[in-house]
Structure formats: C-alpha cells, structure tokens
Amino acid sequence: MAAITLRPVSRCAEHAPMSEARKAPMRSFRCPGRAVLVASSFVVKAVLRTSCRRFVARRFPEWLQPEPVPVESWNEFLGQLHDRQPSVLKGYGSDVAEKWNFEYLERQMSGSNWRVHLVPKENQRFQRVYGQGIGEGLVSLMSFPEFAKKSLAADSQHSYYMQVPYTGRPLQELGEDPYGAEMRQDRESFQWLWDVAAKAALGELDNNQLWIGRGGNLTPCHYDKAENLHIQISGRKHFLLIPPEETFAVYPYPIHHPLDSFSMVDFDRPDLQRFDRFARLQCFEATLEPGGLLYLPKYWWHQVTQSIFQQNPRCRALLAHRFLEDFTGGLVERLREVSALPSSFSTARLLTELADDWAEDTPPALRRLGDTVKGRLAELMGGLSPEELQELLEGTCAGQRLFAPVPETEVTTASQGDLGGWLPTQ
Ligand SMILES: O=C(O)CCC(=O)C(=O)O
C-alpha cells in the first residue's frame, strides 16, 4: 500500500495570519491562577455563553460550576492555541458530518475487524485500562456490522465504544489502509488541520483516533501527554476540562498504578471526605456540536460524556487529532515544564525516592534539586504543607493507603497513543 501522506492545504490561508489575530481587541478571560488575553466577538459569544450556563446549572452541583471554554472566531482560536489554552471553534471541523452515519461507516469499514471497548451497561465508564481489580471491561476486535448491531441492541448487557486510528503512525506501521475508497478520500476534509497545527507549533502529528458510539458513554477524568484537536463529526459531546494546576484537586492514582493518568474521584458521586480538595475544584466546560473543534492542551484533565437521544440512536463520531506525546523524560526537559504538574509530579517522586533510598551517597546537589521541585509543587498547589505533599507523592492522600498492590492480573490498555492492540484480520 502506498504510504498515507497528508499534505497541508490552503483552507486556512483565507484567514488572517496569527500576527493579525494578535492585533484584534483584547479582553481578559478568567482562568484559575492566571489571566489570559484573548480577542473576542461579544455578541455571538454572549448567546453561546448563556446556553452553556443553563446547561451547566442543570448538570453540576452548586460547588462545581464550570466556566465555559471560550468559543472563538478563527483568529481568536489561533491565539488561544498559541497560548496553550483550551478553546472551541464552531462550524469548522467537518465537511463529512452529514454522511458519517452508521450505514456509511459500515460500508466503508467492512473490510476489517476493529477495536471496540466493551463495559457493563450499568456503569458505561470507558476508562480504557481494564483488568481484575482495576476496571470492568475489555477491548475486543469485531467487524463494523457486529459493532453497529450490538451497540444499537436495546437488550444488550454491555455498552460499546469504538476507538480506532484513521490516519497517522498506526496505519503507516500497518502498511495497508483498511478504509474504503470514499472514506480515504474524506481525509482530505481534515487536511486544513495540518495548517492549524503548523501555525500553532503543536508539533508532529502522531495519529487521528476515531471514536464511534451510540451515545450515553462516559470517558472518566484523565489527562494525556499529547496536544489534541477534537473534531465532533456527529452527535454531541460534553467535555469537563480541568487545568494542570488543579491536578491535586482531582487526586490522580498513585504514580506507577496502571491508572496513574486518571482521577480517583467518581465525579458523579464524589467522596468529599476522602477527596476534600475536589470540592474546591476550578474547571471549565465545552459542548461540541457537529463541526465543532476543541483544542485540548496536553496535561489538561478531561472527562467526556456523549449525549444520547432516546428516540434516535444515531452514531456519534469524534475525531481526535493527536500530536506526538511528550516522552522527553529527560530531567532537564521535565524541570523546564515545572508548571505542567503531572510530569513534575513524577520528577518530584523520582527525586524523593532517590533522596530517600540513597540517603548516604545521594549527591547534595540532587537532594537540593528534589527539595526545589517539591517546594515549587507545593506552591503551585496552593501552599500544601510538606506532610500533605509527601502524602500525595506516596499515594496515601486522605490519610489512608489508597491502593493495595495491584492484583496479579492481565491489564488490557488502550489508552493514549497506544493503539497497538488493533490488528486487522484479513
Ligand atoms: O471522546 C471520548 O470519549 C474520549 C476522548 C479522549 O478522552 C481523548 O481523546 O483523550
């Protein structure tokens, strides 16, 4: 098969370049811990914000009222990307919205088996990492017709959610293209994203992941190490977004736990005694309609829910245009990113371990470095005491060991850029 090469197209060239965007009138957008300047178009936004607020008020308790993510014009959107702040652009993402329904996808994806997440219907939590004692569910390979039939069956015991690569590295590694001719052609509709990525210096694209479901599913709160542009093709999705600065209010699983990029808090039924900082969480919300594009910066925590229309179980498809993950790993790189808490958290943990384990011969400079990182973390988290910080680093928050050692179990993971479990059977 010919390699799938995707070249930038000129759709964005019609729009003003970034330098123009920066000249637009500016206003302040409140974001926890900092003020970010963005340009604005007041009239449209006022309407959008009102509907967003009504929605918010229905879904969240008084103490968890998210701010809406700004819905921007093209230039403002680029400005937000440039500042690495989440933002929504309406009406850009999808020329294919009308035709990507279950019937069309079934025709175009009939030649292969595809990776589908499968969880008990009563919880519908697709946390992408499964195993005994970790999370109920699994990842299974099935044909598209089987997936469509099962996910639409009212009496099914399970919920189904497909997550497959549409372009990028996983397909190139595969060496063949499992999509039908028309769906290959559809990739042209998304090529303008390359221009967006280049303008905002988002880095190298790794893959596009296609998420397909019938609605009602929940992807629990987690963060990714990749910059992400989400395009809603059909149906509607709600994103709850939490800045990296709030990491410790969402209580990540302890480092090295299979779910260590996930929050331990059940957002629907938070245990506020155990997770008391959750009650002070500052978060944002975005609702994506077909054609909507969300910029989700790396390290931002997100919980995603799909809307469901009982009368009309249409397909909900979302394309996640995902850039190379941050695997730098180098200490210097990590320290440079000290405001991106999850990675600093690992660094602090590592340095603490070093300092503790090699008490005799740990070079003083390394110990000082550990203390500096810990100090900065405590500061960023709003002035935690050294004891509280130590508790978090050790995964013993709320005064009790949160996890017994992970049980001997096979862990099925389908998270982040790892699409390795997906194989065609033809
Ligand atoms: O759309 C979803 O349900 C999940 C998307 C997501 O969490 C991601 O792309 O990281």
TrEMBL record:
Annotated InterPro entries: Cupin_8, JmjC_dom, RmlC-like_jellyroll
Residue span(s) of domain JmjC: 186-352
Gene3D superfamilies given in the database record: Jelly Rolls
SUPFAM superfamilies: Clavaminate synthase-like (SSF51197)
Pfam families in alphabetical order: Cupin_8
SMART domains named in the record: JmjC (SM00558)
Official protein name in the record: JmjC domain-containing protein
PANTHER family: HYPOXIA-INDUCIBLE FACTOR 1 ALPHA INHIBITOR-RELATED, HYPOXIA-INDUCIBLE FACTOR 1-ALPHA INHIBITOR
PROSITE patterns, per the entry: JMJC
